[in-house]
Amino acid sequence: MKKYIIYSGILIAGLLLGWLIFGGSSNKETDHNHDTVSETNQMWTCSMHPNIMQPEPGDCPICGMDLIPAESGADGLLADQFKLTENAMALANIQTTVVGKGNVEENKLKLSGKIAENEEANAVQVSYFSGRLERLNISFTGEQVGKGQLLATVYSPELYAAQQELITAASLKESQPALYKAVRNKLKLWKLSENQINQIEETGKVQENVPIYATVSGTVTEKLVEQGDYIKQGQPLLKIANLSTVWANFDVYENQIDRFKIGQDVVVTTNAYANKEFKGKVDFIDPILNTRTRTVTLRVVLNNKDDVFKPGMFVTAKVEGAVSSNKALLTIPTSAVLWTGERSVVYLKANPDQPVFEMREVKLGTQIGDEYEVLEGVFVGNEIVTNGTFTVDAAAQLQGKKSMMNKDGGKVMTGHEGHLGMDNKSSNEQSEHTMNERLKVSAQFQEQLKVVFNDYINLKNALVKEDSKTSSESASSLLNNLSKVNMKLLSDNNAHSSWMSLEGNIKSSATSISKSSTIILQRDHFKHLSSHLIHAVQLFGVNEKVYVEFCPMADNNKGAYWLSKENKVINPYFGDAMLTCGEVKQVIE
Q: How many C-beta atoms lie closer than 10 Å to residue 519's C-beta?
């Protein structure tokens, strides 16, 4: 009996020990299997391409960046909200600003403009007789001259003969005073002074080379002749500007005209002298509207005796009493606004502690300098995106949220989805959904815009080849054809205002490219040109299929867009170094 008790005890102990060893192991294995399943469910995405989802870590198939863990869900987000990763925020350099009082302070309105020569003080030095320019004493443009200064000497056969007539008439002045007086007057008409005429008469000697003296004081702004040239009577020799006063010309949009009047006080500032203010008054408001830019010129005359202002210098003006409303005016930076013709949109940061955004339509008033009046849509205290707005909009489109070109939300064509392989019905539906904001314009306007677009393509191809000279020439050609686009072909007011804004931005970017001689600078301006032209093609169309392409590595990893006629990616921002980096973001029908 004792033996059975011992055996039973050993058996129970063995069972207990086995349960402790294998039961725990089984639990651990179950936990391990659970963890494995959990890890398997973890998805990985790219910070610059949130549409990429992979079941395991690795490299992004588009840009090659390391994948990061994807967010587990969008808990707490409203239907129209979307979230960006911190990495995407940093790489795209997305910046926000809290909405408050803008550029209107103490009833002052800001305007931007340029310094120009005071045309009333300008003069053209001309020759009053024909001849050969024996000596020109002005060596370079920008040289200072004073009234009465010797500018040049001229050999003139007709003046030589007239001097001989004077010497002959002087001997007959008692018997023929009328003839004598007529000869002297003839020389006076050729701007010879009394002293010069008396000297010829008294010495009886003819001057072979006759001097030309400055009739005004100022700065030589242009040389119109060179030494040795044959000149005609009345021919301009030099342009001389008196820069003791200059004009500051400011563009005023037609919906701002009623806010200004002659005599208003103006405070002018310039980046060249950041801490100085210069006072003046509105001197002139152009009565004729520039139909191309829909602006009139407002002029302020500034004292420039200290040579502070240089023609061509950018200046800013604060005009007193230009805002009629007594209430605080709400303004936002122009960089925050995306235009879609009929709509203007901004992106709000919905959560101050997290990178959560949503699109908001706004109603804008007058453009005031670098800001817009906001009539509806945002309020004081709202936080809006002011830098990287286009990137945020692209993220909204990728995530199927409301966006600039897709006001109802839903996924648009991205990546290499396109509509290759779709049937005609689905292709057309996709196209209409993507481009539901296209403005109706005439085919003639589209053809004129297409010429500009073709110049842009030539510019892009030159940047791919790293040919700075051809890039500059293509930009110049683009500017020339841009000036030929006839805005009168646009009958719709929304189309008018959209094209006005886009045309100015396109012109500014293309001008910078045409004047740049290095590929790095040209590519930097090209990203801005592309952004504006993408918008123009989206709004107006060029009667041709166009691809919007994007490289996340361009612009120091901030990302940059460009337009192409083909689905194949050929990157203009890196050339051979990263020729195929990028993807198709949108197909514009």
A: 19
- In sequence order, what are the residues at sequence separation of 6 or more whose Cβ sits closer than 8 angstroms to the Cβ of residue 187? 162, 163, 166, 196, 197
Q: Is 389 exposed, middle or buried (0-12, 13-18, 19+ CB in 10 A)?
A: buried
| Most distant CA pair in the chain, distance | 179
Per-residue pLDDT tens digits for 559-575: 788 999 998 889 999 87
CATH number at residue 299: 2.40.30.170
Q: How confident is the model at residue 339 (pLDDT cuts 50, 70, 90)?
A: confident
Mean pLDDT of 316-336: 70
pLDDT tens digits along 176-208: 888 888 888 888 887 787 888 888 888 888 888
CA atoms of 122 and 241, how far apart (whole Å):
4
Positive or negative CA dihedral for 511, 516, 518, 521?
negative
- Residue 305 located in a structural domain: yes
Residue 34 and residue 53 in one domain: no
33 shares a domain with 57: no
Q: Which pLDDT does position 39 carry in this prediction? A: 43
Number of domains in the chain: 6
Angle at the Cα of 533 from the Cα atoms of 376 and 332, rounded to 5 degrees: 25
**pTM for this prediction:** 0.42
pLDDT digits (tens, 9 = 90+) for 47-68: 655 556 677 788 877 667 777 7
pLDDT bin (cut points 50, 70, 90) of residue 26 is very low
Query: Are residues 174 and 315 part of one domain?
Result: no
428 within some domain = no
Specify whether 454 is located in the same domain as 569.
Answer: yes
Burial of 315 (0-12, 13-18, 19+ CB in 10 A): buried
One-letter amino acid of 171: S
**Between 157-170 and 194-203, two packed helices, what is the crossing angle to 10 degrees?**
60
Which of 202, 225, 241 corresponds to the end of one domain? 241
- CATH number, domain of 354, equals 2.40.420.20
Q: Per the domain annotation, does 79 fall within a domain? A: no
Q: Which of 524, 532, 581 lies closest to 552 in space, CA to CA?
A: 581
pLDDT digits (tens, 9 = 90+) for 131-153: 899 899 888 888 889 988 889 98
- Same domain as 536, residue 447: yes
In 3-state terms, what secondary structure has residue 419? coil
* Highest mean pLDDT: which range of 76-90, 246-260, 328-342: 246-260
> Domain range spanning residue 211?
121-241
For 148, residues 6+ apart whose C-beta sits below 8 A from its C-beta are: 213, 214
Is residue 86 included in any domain, yes or no?
Answer: no
Q: How far apart are CA 454 and CA 449, in angstroms?
A: 9
> Do 581 and 454 fall into the same domain?
yes
If asked whether residues 448 and 573 sit together in one domain, one would say yes
Task: Provide the pLDDT for residue 28.
Answer: 44
Q: Are residues 375 and 262 in the same domain?
A: no
For residue 360 the two structure tokens come to 């908001």
Whole-Å CA distances, 99 to 325, 329, 373, 388, 403: 19, 11, 11, 17, 21
